[in-house]
Amino acid sequence: MATTHLISVEEYLRTTYRPDVDYVDGEIQERNLGELDHGTIQGAFMFYLGPRRREWNIRAVTELRVQVKEERFRVPDVCILDADAPKEQIIYHPPLVCIEVLSPSDTIYGMRQRVRDYVEMGVRQVWIVDPKDRTAIVCEGNSMVEQTDGTLKLPGTKIEVPLADLFSVLDE
């Protein structure tokens, strides 16, 4: 039987991982990334959001630690933060949106756990983007709605990301 080595929050926070990892109730959990389509979509979000940051009053960041619970840190692929929120090296205030780009080895169970953590923290929406199927799932509260076209929108804000623009980079 395999044993799990638990570490403290303090040890997690003072340790550098490459790539960074999630910390869940004392356990280190590796994240799935490193493939071309994953990185391409992550970059497409940054290129799309960056020029709009002042108009939309946002900050967009990649792979930043977010403390979702006292003993739990997640590292979303992209976070959209309110520009008026405190500037934190580790995010303790809920982002507006957390974006997860699926990798082939991601599981439904694992993604549901991540979404639940973000929602319970107070994140307004979680966008799960699948580069293979060119779809997105918008998670808000207890609902998950798949979109195959149209625009990802955060109600009450100017944030809008057309899926066609996002996925077009995969054809370049």
UniProtKB/TrEMBL annotation:
InterPro entries referenced in this protein's UniProt entry, alphabetically: Nuclease_put_TT1808, Restrct_endonuc-II-like, Uma2
Range of residues in the leader sequence: none
Keywords, comma-separated and alphabetical: Endonuclease, Hydrolase, Nuclease
Superkingdom, taxonomy of origin: Bacteria
Spans traversing the lipid bilayer: none
UniProt GO MF annotations: endonuclease activity
SUPFAM superfamilies: Restriction endonuclease-like
Pfam families for this protein: Uma2
Domain Putative restriction endonuclease, first and last residues per copy: 10-142
Protein known as: Endonuclease, Uma2 family (Restriction endonuclease fold)
Lineage of source species: Bacteria, Pseudomonadati, Acidobacteriota, Terriglobia, Terriglobales
